[in-house]
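Researcher: Structure for this, please.
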Amino acid sequence: MFFRLIIGVVLVGSLVGCATTQKPTTVNQLQIRVAQVESRLDDRERDAAELKYAVEELVVSVEKLVGSVGSVNRPSRSATVSSTKASQPGPVQILRVPVTPQEVQTALKKSGYYDGAIDGKLGSGSQKAIKAFQKDHDLESDGIVGKKTWADLKNYLE
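Model: Predicted structure, token format:
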């Protein structure tokens, strides 16, 4: 009897051991893959949230920089505006098309958005005029003269 009990325990133990060492079923494999994909998705969502935060910080920095931009003297068709503070990190682009600041100011004046002197200095008055023009013409009101803004604005030079 004792011998039968030992054989029964060994037999049950071997069967249980075999059941736990079997290959994963298709369902188990799919569950593992789903868990891996969910983990990667969570990682990417965290990365996206971090990138969004970094972009928001950059936007705030750019807005501060644009707000501190002073007047610029531009004899050439340069597309950058120097900051009035020497401590500012690099130039801010206002013109992204090959036009002079005088052409922009003239077009803004003829369109009724700018009442300052046409001096070739794209200061805060010029930027306000550019933004107002863009807003009224259903353009992105960013204060930057790009292709779309200039396409509408150059019509006032004729």
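Researcher: Any notable elements?
Model: Residues 26 and 48 are 32 Å apart (CA to CA). Confidence is low (pLDDT under 50) at residues 70-91.
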